[in-house]
Amino acid sequence: MSPTPSSPAPLLYRHRHLLGIEGLTRPEIGSLLDLSESYIEPIRSKTKSALLVGRTVINLFFENSTRTRTSFELAAKRLGADVINMQVQASSIKKGETLLDTAMTLNAMHPDVLVVRHPDSGAVNLLSQKVDGAVINAGDGSHEHPTQALLDAVTIRRRRGRLEGQLVAICGDVLHSRVARSNIHLLTTMGARVRVIAPPTLLPAAIERLGVEAFTDMRKGLKDCDIVMMLRLQSERMHGSHVPSTREYFHFFGLDYGKLDAAKPDALIMHPGPMNRGVEIDSEVADDIDRSAIREQVEMGVAVRMACLDVLTRPLRSNAEA
Length: 322
Ligand code: ASP
Known about the structure:
The chain is of the alpha/beta class. The chain has helices spanning 26-38, 40-44, 67-78, 99-107, 123-128, 146-160, 178-189, 218-222, 246-253, 257-260, 283-286, 294-321; strands at 56-61, 82-87, 113-118, 134-140, 167-171, 193-197, 213-215, 227-230, 268-270.
């Protein structure tokens, strides 16, 4: 093991938890992005650090996840932490235990960081008020998914050099998407221009109040965009039918080369995954190695999660050293 290179940039993030992007300042976000970038090289060279040796990270997932849970696990292990994964199906919730009972039980085991995903908006915030360790929101209902927005921002910054001035289209099921909400907060705070494009049934009321422009037509909304971010239809969060059929949805809102023509010729294609090919995105477009940044997003996810674990455990580590 080699010691972790500490971040060259001054760290401006001063919160105990990471519950959302809303309310974070531009310098706070900027310093998280800088720190995340400093972890890319150690990931690529498979350097393991001893930064979190003796620390415990619990991944508490009340909802399915592939990318997010795996990348938090890998990030924690790369930093030397002990990691415990708790899956919803196996948890006591099935036996009627409440979220807070589960939190208190886990708290008694003194985890340093709890990474929590929950289907209810606000549940992770509630839990953070009851536990002693730091809490990272790994997605709460349709509210926020802060590490996804951070990894998207690192990806855009690396490809385009900056976030400021980029014209970003977020397309699809904006209504139910925590990815859209976190990205809107992050991108507008960092000076990007954001458009959302969705059928009227999947556009939140008064979304313009968040500082975005809303469109219900893909070609109009995509016109001259630098970045095209696609979203999955969140059927698990839909009550009733929001789209007539997935076939019709693809026809009007699925990203194919025809619609992509309206964006800038070098527009970058992004998707948080999991993708539904042929529903919100055409397979060929998703796999276009010149245009798609989808795999890079996954790689940046590990770097961002290492940075978040590093940042939130700094107060503990400095107490231990004192
Ligand atoms: N993985 C992302 C999330 O957890 C996006 C999605 O599920 O569509 O919100």
